[in-house]
Amino acid sequence: MAKAEGFEGLVLRRALLSRLLILTLILLWRLLFRPYDTSASLNPSCLSAAGGRSLSAGPILWPRIGAAIEASVVWDGVYFVRIAECGYEYEQTYAFFPLLPLCISLLSRSVFAPLVPMIGSRAVLALSGYVLNNVAFLFAAVYFYRLSVLILKDPAAAFRASILFCFNPASVFYSSIYTESLYALFSLGGLYYLFSGATTVAMLLLALSGSARSNGVLNAGYFCFQAMQHAYDAIIQKKRPILAGHAVIGGVARSICIFVPFLAFQAYGYSNICLGGFSYELRPWCKARIPNLYGFLQNHYWGVGFLRYFQVKQLPNFLLASPILSLAICSIIHYASVLLQVFRSLDAHDHNSFAALLSLLGTNEISDAVGVSKNNLSSKTFQEHTVRRRKQERKNKSTESFQHLMATDHALLQSTQGYPSILVFPFILHLAFLTFTALFVMHVQVNLWLLILLHMITGERNLARLVQIDLLSALESHA
């Protein structure tokens, strides 16, 4: 425990160092090179008088500093700052989810409000976004480490993965005005609490991730996975079908909660555009039987769709994404092959052994077993470990199944070197879905950071076999 806490402090310091390094490189790049995107200079007044702000009506004390901060806002950051300042004015702005603009607006009106007379309101909005995302990244790195320790039971491996997360190739997105930092914070934090047994906290955090990015709805799959495990355990192990029904209903209810922010935002867009009327002509998606605002925006404005990115001119972008895509695909194949070997190693006629293994899907017990046998813990440590495990019984863990698995499959767990934790399974499914989406549906080059993130959570040993380094992987797609 002390070792893990020591690593956690190191992770926080390395995360801070990585942000300082990235921000320094951004400043140097801006000084030495002209930005490719010059849309930051386009800043018309808000369409609605209520949307604009008059806090900086007087003269600005440091206009050059304010202008420099405003000029640093490029690409998607232009949309987020504009939404924070003026709200959702145009149809295409609804492709950008509201959590980041809302947080930016709140910070600029409270914590950073005294800076408005000095650098101007729009510069304060941008500064709020930069501070928010960099602070969120620090907490995300800590949760990344905690989640990795929980899944892998190896603080050293989790530390290496966290360092790679801090210095990953897509790191610039986490220090810019993008949604990556907030999404990573709420997703990683939610998953950590989910696997720790704090289901309600996990549900709230994962729902917030869905208000930051559209792909946050995929996190509902973890509750479905947990519900399937609990239902299987109730039917096969405990012989209580009623408990299985409760587990399924609970899983469905929590999954719906994850979808609520996404659906509420789509309803908000429908109300403003289709009912409020942005133009005299009703938009095509408004006439659909089931209006799909987000799907229409991605298809119409960004050209997102199945195989639509498969063009000769996009070949450089596929080459850019090929390393991480290859690693993701190889990790998925490797994990599937190892898991298949494990199932084949079980005695097909020993139903209890096989059932005990499956009943532990979604819990920490099999991972605990691997960690104990691998590290040859002392008897005192093992006793502490057992006490901690028993304290988790109220969090839907099956101690009887765990003991049976240890008795029947202990040799298997010891003999399989680098045995991947069964807890990795839902992450592998997540990784597989996002890899497919990145390759065939989305803009492949902007999905790199997602593949990097999930890949770090899912398999340090798997990737070590591929590239001869210790790496933990994780993923999530850039809309």
UniProtKB/TrEMBL annotation:
Pathway: Glycolipid biosynthesis; glycosylphosphatidylinositol-anchor biosynthesis. Pfam families: Mannosyl_trans2. One of its GO terms (molecular function) is alpha-1,6-mannosyltransferase activity. One of its GO terms (biological process) is GPI anchor biosynthetic process. The chain crosses the membrane at residues 12-32, 124-145, 157-177, 183-208, 318-343, 427-454. It is found in: Endoplasmic reticulum membrane. Its EC number is 2.4.1.-. The keyword Nucleotide-binding does not apply. It is a multi-pass membrane protein. GO terms for cellular component: endoplasmic reticulum membrane; mannosyltransferase complex. Keywords: Endoplasmic reticulum, Glycosyltransferase, GPI-anchor biosynthesis, Membrane, Transferase, Transmembrane, Transmembrane helix. Belongs to the PIGV family. Mannosyltransferase involved in glycosylphosphatidylinositol-anchor biosynthesis. This is GPI mannosyltransferase 2. It comes from Phoenix dactylifera (Date palm). The gene is LOC103712896.
